[in-house]
Amino acid sequence: MDFSFTQEQKRLRQEVRDFLEDEVGRRLWKPSCDAWIQGHNPAFTKRVAQRGWIGLTWPREYGGHERSFLDRLIVTEEMLRYGAPAACHWFSDRQIGGSILSYGSEEQKREFLPKIVRGDIYVGLGMSEPESGSDLASLKMRATEEDEVYVVNGQKTWTSGASFINYVNLFARTDSDAPKHRGISEFIVPMDLPGISRIPMIDITGTEAWNDLFFDNVRVPKKYLIGQKNTGFYHVVEQLAYERGGMERLMGNYPLFDALVTFIKETKRNGRTLSQDTRIRHKLAQLQVEFEVGRLLMYKVAAVMDAGRPPTVEAAMSKSYATAFEQRLANTAMDILGPYGLLLGDSKFVPFEGLASHSYLASKGYSLQAGSREILKNIIATRGLGLPTS
Phi-psi region for residue 243, left (φ > 0), alpha (ψ -120 to 50) or beta? Predict the structure, then answer.
């Protein structure tokens, strides 16, 4: 099997690297862990849009560039490698725009996709609900049809980027009598509609990447329904395949990995660099091998998408593997740094600006985001291996 890249893809990768090197060199932002979800930087998103790197796979008639998912993964990989602050456009580009492209009306495609490509609007995810866990089919938010609107009531939790988004990609129950998988619809809802409120969720790292959203008799015009009524669950299954197969599940903390390697090469203990310590060398070698395996799994997902089918099983495999890797990376960093790894970014003694402590604290939730490991293993068992469900 040929894993090499074309000359055009190599040029694309170098172009992205040169752009990011220039950005970092001019100190327009600092590389950070989890920047794809916590790095809210509208100016950066605009500069990325001007380069043509948002909506890379979408049709040109909607502002896209009709390139491959492999090309898009190359851009994504480099963004994550540098810890670039891409949160403003991440979810729209990764999955929501694709859902509009697959299921939306022509009017919706022409209204939303060019704006996403230009970096003019930001869209967040309105999926999770309290007490629903990873079972999206159990959601309780109601959208009741009335004349020309749907009246929405309920609560969403873990809403990504709700502090700065213009729209929320909302999944709500539109038929309470239908089987739970068949009574859900998908909407794209303007955040400025009356009746929407939010409460920030400050996580253990001290950042506000998520929010609780509340909908109190919010009147959503029917033009914001994506696809057919009561088909939203099937849309979200496809969305989650794209979400779970994203390189961010492997490289969200790559700036820590890179800093750790440099630290080990340069730091001395008892007159010898840490890289000469056999135990530490083995730990880093193991991480590097695991990283390369995870990277190939991600490129397998892109290849499946280029072949024209949702990567449901492949994405479940890659996400389950990748989040375990990121947790091992955080644990290894803390083990090597010892007590210094506990320090936060404002301490004068903290190694590489607190990336280790941030990663360690955040890593506890990685195996839950976008589906727990148990859910992913069930997908692999039933859809990949054909095992019975009971």
Answer: alpha
